[in-house]
Specification:
heterodimer, A: 238 residues, mainly alpha, 8 helices, 80% helix, 0% strand, B: MetI-like fold, 11 helices
Chain lengths: 238, 231
């Protein structure tokens, strides 16, 4: 029978490492989500308000980043970017840098993909707001930035929250792919544990439980946020 | 070797790996769709056990990363004596089988959710009318529920299949030489990272474009476009 103390917090237990892996998984998901939100917001804005070439670029970005496997994006950035950087550095006559940090590359890669999905969500969210509201804001003398902050953002956040929750769940699961470039997040730790103890079933089962815990908790958080944001609205509608 | 020749050889090698990607996609898409149908039926059934089973399946496979599921099937299950000494060991030893199995389970949970959502949107009046006409349960399913379900679910279903195309690349992590696997192989020999990965990415995009077009044709035949444009 397998020894469950291997997953505990004792001297030869992997518990602490697995939890550290969870923490890194969450940090990675948070930073890629943030990158995705900023870039996704810009892309949505580009598609809605940008001039034609910008609009076309944003649309193309969406098609490519939503169509190419995440794994390929991660590998491309991790192994492809350095060769590009090395080429540029060499052209500038600088000494070649080493491999980039896996955390940075991982969050950028997942963030780039996340941005493509978030852009679609924001676009839908903006479309759900009546044009009249923005016209009214302008008529009452609000500048673009003010109406963006007071009219657009509060409503877009509320409308898009459930969809953003879905994207967050995908981010959380996509972060496991960053294990292929050696970042010691939960997937990687469980792989290392599986390899060094020769008990893959035990370690992958532990990882499954931990991922389920993370997805369940974040689902509950998003539900609570959704309820909190919807509170006033429900009263008005009744 | 000239630059053009190099690119052509890469594309040739990647194309030669495309059947593996397509095989995994086809097998797991078909099986996942069937399994999703079963899950939907379980979720809609009167039995509490079946409903719980369906909900638990969806929770498990949607709540964990597919790469972890693939590793669990390929490396994890091999540790269990009844798998290792069982009659199906020849299958569980095969990474393509394991990838298909994990993808079938995982994607059935996602597609099942699509079907379940569509099921709620099937007009109840049609079902009542069918029942009033004396249709049997099977007739009702085949003539009323399925056609409506197909129309409602098709857009989300096609999205799920496109997601599956991307997921097939994970098979490369358990030594399957699909498009991504071969791309990594070429890179480890030539160190031409950018060109090779970009070619692979282009292949996936092409595959997606073909699938999107096919689903678009299907949707047109079902007049989904007309229905939405009528709004």
């Amino acid at each position: 029978m397998t020894d469950l103390s291997l997953l505990g917090f004792g001297a030869d237990g992997w518990g602490r490492l697995l939890l550290a892996g969870c923490a890194l998984t969450i940090e990675l998901s948070l930073s890629s989500m943030a990158i995705g939100t900023v870039l996704g917001g810009l892309l949505a804005w580009a598609r809605l308000r940008g001039p034609l070439p910008v609009r076309a670029f944003a649309a193309g970005y969406g098609i490519v980043l939503r169509g190419v496997p995440e794994l390929l994006v991660i590998l491309l950035l991790y192994f492809g970017l350095p060769s590009l950087i090395v080429a540029v550095w060499a052209a500038m006559g600088w000494s070649a840098p080493g491999l980039p940090p896996a955390f940075l590359i991982g969050s950028i890669a997942i963030g780039l993909v996340s941005a493509a999905y978030q852009a679609e969500v924001f676009r839908g969210g903006v479309a759900a707001i009546a044009v009249g509201q923005l016209e009214a804001a302008r008529a009452s003398g609000m500048t673009g930035l003010l109406s963006f902050r007071r009219i657009l953002i509060p409503q877009v956040v509320r409308v898009t929250l459930p969809a953003l929750g879905n994207i967050w769940q995908f981010n959380l699961k996509d972060s496991a792919l960053v294990s292929v470039i050696g970042l010691a997040e939960l997937m990687r730790i469980s792989l290392v544990g599986a390899g060094s103890t020769r008990l893959p079933f035990l370690f992958f089962a532990a990882a499954i439980v931990l991922y389920l815990a993370m997805t369940t908790v974040s689902d509950a958080v998003f539900r609570a946020l959704d309820r909190a944001l919807d509170r006033g609205r429900a009263e008005v509608q009744r | 070797m000239t630059e053009d020749r190099f690119l052509l050889t890469i594309i040739g090698q990647l194309l030669a790996a495309a059947p593996v990607t397509l095989l995994i996609l086809l097998v797991s898409a078909v099986l996942a769709t069937l399994l999703a149908g079963v899950l939907t039926a379980c979720a809609a059934s009167g039995s509490r056990v079946l409903r719980l089973l369906s909900a638990g399946w969806t929770f498990l496979f949607r709540g964990t990363p597919l790469i972890l599921q693939i590793f669990m099937v390929y490396y994890g299950l091999a540790m269990l004596p009844w798998i290792r000494q069982g009659p199906l060991w020849f299958a569980f030893r095969n990474p393509i089988f394991c990838s298909c199995l994990a993808m079938t389970c995982c994607c059935s949970a996602y597609i099942g959710e699509v079907f379940r959502g569509a099921m709620k949107a099937v007009p109840i009046g049609g079902i009542e009318a069918g029942r009033a006409c004396g249709m049997s349960r099977f007739q009702l399913l085949r003539r009323v529920i399925m056609p409506a379900l197909t129309r409602i679910a098709l857009p989300s279903y096609s999205n799920e299949v496109i997601m599956m195309v991307k997921s097939t690349s994970l098979a490369s992590t358990v030594t399957v030489m699909d498009i991504t696997g071969v791309a990594q192989g070429i890179i480890s020999k030539t160190y031409r990272t950018l060109e090779v990965f970009l070619c692979a990415a282009a292949l996936y995009l092409l595959l997606n474009a073909v699938l999107t077009a096919a689903f678009g044709l299907w949707a047109r035949r079902l007049h989904i476009a007309r229905r939405t444009s009528a709004r």
